[in-house]
Amino acid sequence: MALELIALLATGLFAGAAIYVTLVEHPARVECGPALAITEFRPSYRRGAFVQAGLASVGCVAALAAWTQGRGSPVLVAGMLLGAAIPYTLIVILPTNKRLLDPRLDPRTAEAATLLARWGHLHAGRSVAGVLAFLLLGLHTLGMI
């Protein structure tokens, strides 16, 4: 049960942080215009990537370990869903991240605005995965599924 609770905590923190970025931080930075948004994105991304990757890893490993101890298939599915955020980020989002972090990107261009919008949509996918994993784990922990 302890591993499932660790997975639940890490998944809840991951989902909460992802939702905050999707609903608050990224829209606020974009509202300030592309130049300021990119200026803020760069240090924010470096800090956020470390936290989100750590939470996804811990939550995934704890959920998978809990599943091997007989905690049920919802725990496995939640762990895999949360863990999927890592390859999703590396395969799907990373090209956009790299371009936004590139110092040669002119923040006054239409490309900059397009990249920021794309990043927001792609990151929303991580938020959805985190929330679904958290709901699965939470409902399972409460004995509802």
Overall strand count: 0
Number of discrete domains: 1
Distance between the termini: 15 Å
The total count of helices amounts to: 5
Mean pLDDT: 97
- Strand content is under 5%
Q: Radius of gyration from the CA trace?
A: 17 Å
Stretches where pLDDT is under 50 for at least 5 consecutive residues are none
Structural class: mainly alpha
Quaternary status of these chains? single chain
| Helix content bin | over 70%
**How many strands, which pairing sense, and closed or not: the largest β-sheet?**
none
**Topology order in helix (H) and strand (E) letters:** HHHHH
Task: Write up this protein.
With 145 residues, this protein is mainly α. It has one domain. Helix content is 86%, strand content 0%. It contains five helices and no strands. The longest helix is centred in the middle third of the chain and has 35 residues. It is elongated, with a radius of gyration of 17 Å.
Give descriptors for this structure:
145 residues, mainly alpha, elongated
Give a short summary of the structure.
With 145 residues, the protein is mainly α. Helix content is 86%, strand content 0%. The protein has one domain (2-141).
